[in-house]
Amino acid sequence: MSTPNSLYPYFLKYPTICTDTRSITKDCLFFALKGENFDANSFAEQALANGAAHAIIDNPAYSIDERCIIVPDVLTALQELAKYHREQLNIPVIGLTGSNGKTTTKELINAVLSEKYKTFATKGNLNNHIGVPLSLLSLTSETEIAVIEMGANHQKEIEFLCELAKPTHGLITNVGMAHLDGFGGFEGVKKGKAELYTYLKKHDGTAFINRDNPYLLEMTAVAELTNTVYYGREVNNTISGKLLKTDPFLDLFWTDQVRSHHVQTQLTGAYNFENMLAAICISHFFGLTAAQINAGLSGYQPKNNRSQLSKTDKNTVICDFYNANPSSMTAALANIEALSADKKVVIIGDMFELGDESAVQHQLIISEAENTNIATLIFIGKYFYEQKGDHRGHFFHNPAEAKAFLEQASIEDSLVLLKGSRGMALEQLLPFL
User: Fold this and answer.
1) Hey, which end of the chain has fewer CB within 10 Å, N or C?
2) CB of 267 within 8 A of CB of 220?
3) Are 417 and 387 in contact (CB under 8 A)?
4) How does DSSP classify residue 319?
């Protein structure tokens, strides 16, 4: 049986990790992870035939030759290998979590820090118990700073991911009404996210904190953090800022306690202001000049269906359908209401993982949408449909029903918000907009 230490020489020789036989590259290491409906041990022979140098398996029955490396548990082996690799690297690792804005903030931090350093940031949303190890194993000797996104939907998950990534610095973007089912309510969300602060306190790390957020200040006090760097709207912070314009893109001043700087961005949504301040604060901490910071911010273009403004043949669409929860949905509704357009349309899909709060939260979002000045409201999914009642707007059980409506409605010359949880797959509606 192999251990992380004994696997490490193989990793140094073959540093590309694959967990899917459909993406095998020559001389990679194939880790045969188990899924709910499959056992990847059975794909080891195929992975080797497709060019993998070795297959890491935990069922000896699937070993075909010496290229198969047998471990007690493949997932644990992957995690322990990643942890061991991280321990070999003496670099700053910024751990990032939060209920909303994680990925956009990560991308902003990466865009700015890259103006000075060779940075690595989590690809896509590889932020769970498998994604974080894969991210860590992507770090090389050339990496100067890493930004590791950590997602969670239950207690102790952030704690576990911190033990793998060993962040030297950390940021919680915010805490909101997300994954309520797994965390056991909002207080559980706060406790779960605060595990990052607890780790930083224990290991003498530095936390970047939005002083405008009372929940984060409360969590900071509970964790008894001492190495803190603050950002926010007020001038008593290391980095402060003022939003000048939001229509359609954000335009802001920011101050480093010495002088003010102006930057125009390509990002929409007033809710992204605090995400940009976080990126400015972290980059300033790591010694970037104002010119480098502004170059990174102004050059960043969202491409991940988060706050992404897209032009179709008929409309302008705010593509924000990668994820959704009550906090981010409220912010998105406020944003489209504030933007200038003769005609506006809201198309929103169900929010998942809300547990016992689901009915109430969907009802609240319907009411918030009704209270906007937007004439056309479209709600999609069983949770919204169950709250239909006498509300104005169009309600559909699923995206397929919505497609049929959109074909007939022929929405044109409008600003459209398209937002819902990932599982709703609302991108399938784009061709009809």
Assistant:
1) N
2) no
3) no
4) E
Going from the N-terminus, what domains does the chain have, and what CATH number goes with each?
A: 4-73 (3.40.1390.10), 89-299 (3.40.1190.10), 308-432 (3.90.190.20)
The pTM (predicted TM-score) of the whole model is 0.89
Which residue type, as a one-letter code, is found at position 392?
A: R
CA dist., res. 318 & res. 136, Å (int)? 32
Q: What is the largest CA-CA distance in the chain?
A: 67
Angle formed by the axes of helices 157-165 and 74-87, to 10°? 50
Separation between Cα atoms, residue 175 and residue 161, nearest integer Å: 18
Q: Which distant-in-sequence residues (6+ apart) come within 8 Å of 72 by Cβ?
A: 1, 58
Q: pLDDT tens string for the chain (433 positions)? A: 566 678 999 999 999 999 998 899 999 999 999 887 888 999 999 999 999 999 999 999 999 999 999 999 999 999 999 999 999 999 999 999 998 889 999 999 999 999 999 999 999 889 999 999 999 999 999 999 999 999 988 889 999 999 999 999 999 999 977 666 667 778 888 888 999 999 999 999 999 999 999 999 999 999 999 999 999 999 999 999 999 999 889 999 999 989 999 999 999 999 999 999 999 999 999 999 999 999 999 999 988 777 788 999 999 999 988 889 899 999 999 999 999 999 999 999 999 989 889 999 999 999 999 999 899 999 999 999 999 988 999 999 999 999 999 999 889 999 999 999 999 999 999 999 9
What is the Cα–Cα distance from 209 to 173, expressed in whole angstroms?
8
* Nearest Cα to Cα of residue 18 among 54, 70, 71: 54
3-state secondary structure at position 111: helix
According to DSSP, the residues that pair with 415 across neighbouring strands are 316, 344
Kindly list the distances between the CA atom of residue 19 and the CA atoms of 8, 40, 75, 229, in Å, as whole numbers in the listed order. 17, 8, 10, 38
Single out the residue of 349, 327, 323, 345 nearest to residue 336, CA to CA: 345
Give the 3-state DSSP-derived string for 202-258, with helices as H, strands as E and coil as C: HCCCEEEEECCCHHHHHHHHHHCCCCEEEEECCCCCCEEEEEEECCCCCEEEEECCC
